[in-house]
Design goal:
The protein is α/β, with parallel strands linked by helices. It has 17 helices and 8 strands. The radius of gyration is 21 Å and the shape is globular. InterPro entries: DNA_pol3_clamp-load_cplx_C, DNA_polIII_delta, P-loop_NTPase.
Length: 344
């Protein structure tokens, strides 16, 4: 089965219990992760989560089936979550398909795969699209309008009415990342003591009290310094990251989002195009024209193909090493900035 980021939930409901494997791909890793969290929350009993990486599945393709058929010491329920890049899971998926077809994975645990840099045209996706027991969903980079709508839906569920353009403000502050936006909405609801039974109106003053008050408190100055090769600004931005306690995972996600945006724009750009007109025609926010235009000139399609999975690997590394996440992020950002600076 095949779906997209808007109808995957309906497709999953229609498939019911017979769908045991979910392959979520595309450039919007945040959206795919949020979708997996939503589906897991809807399981009758999600149980224990078993985490697998792309490198584990690539080196040991049988691991996926082994985990799908395994039981814990106490026979607890479980589900499997694999974060992979590109085609890292292909051989593991091929093995899963073959064994399922032979009836050797009856009642296996549900499997969720988030495949950064893969598409619905990838070899991995093609193994699954025509199967009734698997769902492939493609997640495209969201735009401001769609994330703003998501933020308003989150607020409604939390018992809040968002005043004026606050929904758009939260979407921008989260870097169009729905997970970060959900976190901000949750904080705002807690601050206002809002709930569906006791709804409250959230205004700019409440947002300023719990969130970043200016753009300088956000992720994008650091992201732009790195992808723009601005070595002179980098030390100041890294110091700011520590001073205001920016979330390293949030910074990495913002970089992934910008890299995905560049990867979407780069194939459309033709020699001789007027950059401002090109960016305007492709829906880039006007305040970001200078940074996005400069970064497009630095990162060609081939370089972006390597940057996107590298950032996905960085994201996974930060999640696995929370105690040293800030150091890991600073080191990787420095290397990326030096590379971008060399391409002036």
């Amino acid at each position: 089965m095949k779906a997209n980021q808007r109808d995957y939930a309906q497709a999953a409901r229609n498939a019911g219990a017979k769908c045991r494997l979910f392959f979520f791909c595309g450039q919007d890793e945040a959206g795919a992760s949020a979708a997996v969290a939503k589906l897991v929350a809807g399981l009758p009993d999600a149980g224990e989560r078993v985490d697998l990486s792309g490198s584990e599945l690539r080196s040991d393709p049988s691991r996926l089936v082994d985990e799908a058929r395994s039981t814990s010491l106490f026979g607890d329920v479980r589900h499997i979550l694999a974060r992979v890049s590109g085609e890292e899971a292909h051989d593991a998926l091929l093995s899963w398909c073959e064994l399922v077809d032979r009836g050797e994975v009856d009642q296996g645990w549900p499997i969720f795969i988030i495949a950064t840099s893969a598409t619905d045209k990838s070899r991995s996706a093609k193994l699954l699209i025509k199967r009734d027991d698997a769902l492939v969903a493609i997640f495209y980079p969201p735009d401001l309008r769609s994330v703003t709508a998501d933020v308003r839906a989150m607020a409604d569920a939390a018992g809040m009415r968002l005043d004026g353009s606050l929904g758009e403000t939260i979407a921008r502050a989260a870097g169009l990342d729905v997970r970060l936006a959900q976190s901000e909405v949750d904080k705002l609801a807690l601050y206002l003591d809002a709930s569906p039974r006791s709804p409250k109106t959230a205004d700019q003053a409440a947002w300023d009290a719990i969130g970043a008050s200016t753009e300088e408190d956000g992720f994008m100055p650091l992201v732009n310094a790195a992808l723009g090769g601005e070595l002179g600004k980098l030390p100041r931005e890294l110091a700011r990251m520590r001073e205001v306690s920016l979330n390293p995972v949030g910074v990495a996600l913002a970089m992934e989002r910008r890299a995905a945006q560049l990867a979407m724009l780069a194939p459309k750009l033709r020699r001789g195009d007027d950059m401002k007109q090109f960016l305007r025609a492709n829906g880039v926010f006007f305040k970001e024209h200078r940074e996005v235009g400069d970064q497009l000139m630095r990162w060609s399609g081939g370089k972006l193909e390597r940057l996107v999975p590298r950032l996905a690997d960085l994201h996974r590394s930060l999640l696995a090493n929370s105690q040293t996440a800030e150091l890991l992020l600073a080191r990787e950002i420095t290397q990326i900035t030096r590379y971008a600076a060399a391409r002036r």
